Structures are given as structure tokens and as C-alpha cells.
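Continuing the batch. This is chain 6 of the set; chains 1 through 5 are on the previous pages. Same settings as before, nothing changed between runs. Recording input and output for traceability.
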Amino acid sequence: MRFEPDPQDPETLMIVDPGCQQLVGYETRIDATGACTVSLDVGPQHLNRHGILHGGMVATVLDVVCGNTASRYFDPEGHAALVTVALNLSYIAAMGPGLITATARATGGGKSTAHVMGELRDEEGRLLATATGIFRRITKR
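Output for chain 6:
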């Protein structure tokens, strides 16, 4: 994982992750205030057999935004290594292709555990899903 300046906004950093991010296609940004957003241009490859956004894609995007928010809870630079302990999702509305954006905020925690709430919205701001997550800080091996 590395941080690069966002070409559209020099005040914002983009997180470049060579793994899942490249496969799924989401973009992760950290703004000047430290807030994280994850966006995904939903295409046919992200839909289920009914033509709506697959629940696994929803879970992935919300896990990423909540995890990056938890990382910043532990370390303002966002370099804290962590794992997801629990991620609870509520699916509220369905959608097909289009842009989705996830945001999150830390709601509490301690030295090694952070609690985070996330939301996923479409281009019009319609709430699609919510998440609550627990993330544990780990030591890299």
C-alpha cells in the first residue's frame, strides 16, 4: 500500500493497494481533514444475477472505508495495521450500474480496538447500506 496525491485535488491523498483494490476497482481517498471515502463505479462485473449491486461488493467497499478509518483512529497517518473483527451490514436499497461512495467515522475504541460506523450512498445521496465494524490493531510479522 502506498499514498499518492490525487490528480484532481492536491489536498487529497489516494491509497494505492495492489491487491483487492485492483481486482474490484474501487478508489480510496483521504482528504485534508483525514476523512476517508471509498468510491466505486459499479459496472456489470459488480452486479448479481438480478442485475443489482452484489452484496459482496457492498461488504468490500464498506470494509475498506471502515478499516481505513480505524487505521487513522490508531495512527493519524493511517499506517496502523489491523484486521476486521466484526462487520455487520444492513442492506437498505438496491441499485444497478452507477457511482457509489462510502464514508465512515470512528465512534470509539481503545488502545487496540476501534469501533466504526459506515454508510454507502449512490450518486443522488440515497442510502444503500450501513455498517458497524470492530477493528483490532495488530503487529505486522
